[in-house]
Amino acid sequence: RNHAHMIYKNPVLGIPSGSRRSAGPYTLQVICDDITTIFVDGKRRTARGTGRWNQMATLKIPSTTRAIGIKCKNNGGPYGLMAQVKDSSGKVIYVTDNSWQCSNRPQRGWATGGFRGRWRPATITRNQKPYLRNIGAWRGMSPNKKVIWTNTGRDRAAFCRKDLRSAGRRTTIRRLKVRWGQRRGTYLAGYSRGRHKYNNLKRAAKECFKRGKGCGGITYEPRSKKYTLRRGRKPRRSRSGEISWIKQVVTSMGGLSFDFSGPTRQVIRRTTTRRVRVTWGQHNG
Fold first, then answer.
1. What distance in Å separates the CA atoms of residue 16 and residue 9, rounded to the nearest whole number?
2. pLDDT by residue (tens digit) across 146-163?
3. 3-state class (DSSP) for residue 209
4. What pTM does this model have?
5. φ and ψ at 90, to 5 degrees?
């Protein structure tokens, strides 16, 4: 077999960091004094319980929802808005607090995920006293939820919004380029932890790729006829006709890349891409 001209490719991997979104639909619960209008990703949604201050509106929303917008109209007297979002397991994942944004007038796209208006953070209010107690239709809501409004009680309407993804699920894609090179008559020191022997080069390359820094390359052992994952990165002269593939980390224009070629005589000419998902978390206060 001519190992120098084998062509294979690594899988494209999605590696999440931080918490992962639940696959099932979410549940949105809203109550406001007095009239509620709900928007999900810019589209108006209807639900029972939006017409009175002491009724809870409950509806299902996709787990891929990017933004929630709630208009609360006050017909006079006390004012306030409360909401929470539960995932498919019933866990509360979002509540109204000062991470929301509120204004006394809407702007184009205010209830969508791409909105870039400079709205102020929501103001936490204690004006609506019953909302501060665990009673009525809002009994059982998360104790972490707050009653919110605009920055002044004189406003008869509050337009409040929440970006679900910006609160911990903004994703950046880094592309890692991988190249494999070959050195005949050499071996790499030390087996990689875990399973380290494979029957073919393609499988060994995939596993070495997944292990990152835990695998410095691959050495083919003629006696066992196995491709072995090795920790070492420096080739050593072999007396038994072993063959090695060496890994080096380099930085390139346009992102981070892996170059698996070293000072080689022959190169496997297949470049693969690994996608790494990076999640940014926001912690208010």
1. 22
2. 999 999 999 999 999 999
3. helix
4. 0.54
5. 95, 0
